[in-house]
Design goal:
Residues 16-177 form the Glycosyltransferase subfamily 4-like N-terminal domain. This protein is of the alpha/beta class. The chain contains 15 helices and 13 strands. The protein has two domains: 6-172 and 360-383, Rossmann fold; 199-358, Glycogen Phosphorylase B (Rossmann fold).
Length: 391
C-alpha cells in the first residue's frame, strides 16, 4: 500500500487544455513514492481527456457546480476533503481560489493556489471584484505561485502576495514527444486536409474568447488578399465554446476550404510536425505551453505581446511578436515567414534550442515537487508531526 502524502488538485473542469495537459504530465511523471494524487473537478470531466492519466490510483471526483454562486459546492468540497485527508490542496486559477477556507476548515495542512492565466473578460487583471477575492484568499494559502514572471510580479504588486508566499514555476515540455519532423516525413494526421505544397499556419488551444481566434482568422484573410499567389492554409485545433462560431466566421469570410477546425485532437505532436508557422493570438496568457510545444517541434512562433508570451518567444530570434488584436501586424509577420522559408527554419531551430535549455519537463516536475516538499516540511515542523505533512 502506498502511504505517500496525497495531493488533491482542484480545477474547474478536466478537459483538453494547456493547464490540464501539464497537470496530467506532472501527475504521470512525479515519483509514485513521493506523492499520491487525486483530481477534484468543480464541474465535471471529459472521459477522453481523463484517459491521458497513466499513473495508477488517481481518482477523479466531480462536484457538478452550477454557474454563479454555489455555497453547496464549498460544503461538498469540505466533506470530500475530510474523507480524503490530503496533505496538500492545490487549486488552480481564479475559478478555484475561493475554496481555500474550505480546505482550512477540513484541516488540510498545505494549501496552494496557482495563477496560470486570466479570463478573457479580464485579460489585464483589472477587475476589482476578482482582485478583491484573490486578496481575501491570500491568508488561506501557504503559496500563491505563477507560471510566468509577469504574472508573479502582478501577484505581488496587485494581489499583494507577500514574497515568502510567492514563486514562479515555468511550464515544461516533453521535447522527446514534441520534435521537428524529418525532411522526408510523409506521415499526416488522420483527416489532414492539406497538401504538401501548402504553407500551413496553425494554432492549438481552447477555442475561447481569451485566445482571440477572430483576430487570427482576420489576419489570415488579410494575408490571402495580399498574397493570393501563395498556397496558404490555416489550422485551428482545439475544442471550446466558440468553435462553432469560428467555423461560421471562416465560412462568412469565404475561407471554409482553406481553414481546418477539427475540434479536439489527441495527436497534437503529429499535427505540429505538419505546420510551418505557429500562431498565438491571445489577449492574455501565462506561460504558453502550446507555444513551447511548437518551439520544441521546430516551429517559429508569431505571438501577441501579452502576459508570458514575450518571456517564451524571443522576438526576432525564435519568432515574431505583434500587438494583440491587430490583424494587420499579425498578417505582416506571417508574410515574412511565408516569403522566407530560411528565416522560418532558423527561428524554428533557435526555438527548439531555447526549450531544451530552459523549459524541460524534468525541470518542471522537479520544481513542483520541490514546492510540495518544502511546504510539507515546513508544516510538519510547525505542527510537530513526524511522519508526513498529512498528520
Amino acid at each position: 500500500m502506498n502511504d505517500a502524502p496525497l495531493i488533491v488538485h482542484l480545477i474547474y473542469r478536466l478537459d483538453f487544455g494547456g493547464l490540464e495537459s501539464l497537470l496530467v504530465e506532472r501527475i504521470n511523471r512525479m515519483p509514485a513514492s513521493a506523492y499520491r494524487h487525486a483530481i477534484v473537478c468543480l464541474t465535471d470531466s471529459n472521459p477522453a481527456f481523463a484517459r491521458k492519466i497513466t499513473r495508477a490510483g488517481v481518482a477523479i471526483h466531480a462536484l457538478h457546480k452550477q454557474p454563479g454562486q454555489s455555497p453547496g459546492t464549498h460544503v461538498a468540497l469540505w466533506r470530500l476533503l475530510r474523507e480524503l485527508r490530503p496533505a496538500v490542496l492545490h487549486s488552480y486559477n481564479l475559478s478555484a481560489v475561493e475554496y481555500g477556507p474550505a480546505a482550512l476548515l477540513a484541516s488540510v495542512p498545505v494549501r496552494i493556489n496557482g495563477a496560470h492565466g486570466r479570463d478573457h473578460d479580464d485579460p489585464h487583471g483589472t477587475n476589482r471584484k476578482h482582485n478583491a477575492l484573490r486578496r481575501l484568499m491570500v491568508p488561506f494559502y501557504d503559496c500563491c505561485y505563477a507560471n510566468s514572471a509577469a504574472m508573479e510580479q502582478w501577484n505581488r504588486d496587485v494581489i499583494r502576495v507577500p514574497p515568502y508566499k510567492s514563486r514562479m514555476l515555468a511550464n515544461g515540455i516533453d521535447a522527446e514527444r514534441f520534435h521537428p519532423g524529418l525532411p522526408d516525413e510523409t506521415v499526416r494526421p488522420d483527416g489532414w486536409p492539406f497538401d504538401p505544397a501548402h504553407f500551413v499556419i496553425g494554432t492549438v488551444g481552447r477555442v475561447q474568447a481569451v485566445k482571440d481566434h477572430a483576430t487570427l482568422l482576420a489576419a489570415f484573410a488579410l494575408l490571402r488578399e495580399r498574397r493570393p499567389e501563395l498556397p496558404l492554409r490555416l489550422a485551428i485545433v482545439g475544442d471550446g465554446p466558440l468553435l462553432e462560431s469560428m467555423r461560421a466566421k471562416a465560412a462568412s469570410l469565404g475561407l471554409q476550404d482553406a481553414v481546418w477546425l477539427p475540434g479536439a485532437r489527441t495527436d497534437i505532436a503529429q499535427v505540429l510536425r505538419n505546420l510551418h508557422v505557429f500562431a498565438m493570438s491571445s489577449i492574455a496568457e501565462g506561460t504558453p505551453g502550446s507555444a513551447l510545444e511548437a518551439m520544441a517541434s521546430g516551429l517559429p512562433v508569431v505571438g501577441t505581446r501579452v502576459g508570458g508570451i514575450p518571456e517564451v518567444v524571443d522576438d526576432g530570434v525564435t519568432g515574431l511578436l505583434v500587438p494583440p488584436s491587430d490583424p494587420g501586424a499579425m498578417a505582416a509577420a506571417f508574410e515574412r515567414y511565408a516569403g522566407s522559408p530560411e528565416l522560418a527554419a532558423r527561428h524554428g531551430a533557435a526555438g527548439r534550442e531555447r526549450v531544451l535549455h530552459k523549459y524541460s519537463m524534468t525541470a518542471m516536475v522537479a520544481a513542483y515537487q520541490g514546492m510540495y516538499d518544502s511546504l510539507c516540511e515546513r508544516k510538519i515542523k510547525t505542527r510537530g508531526a513526524v511522519t508526513s505533512c498529512a498528520e
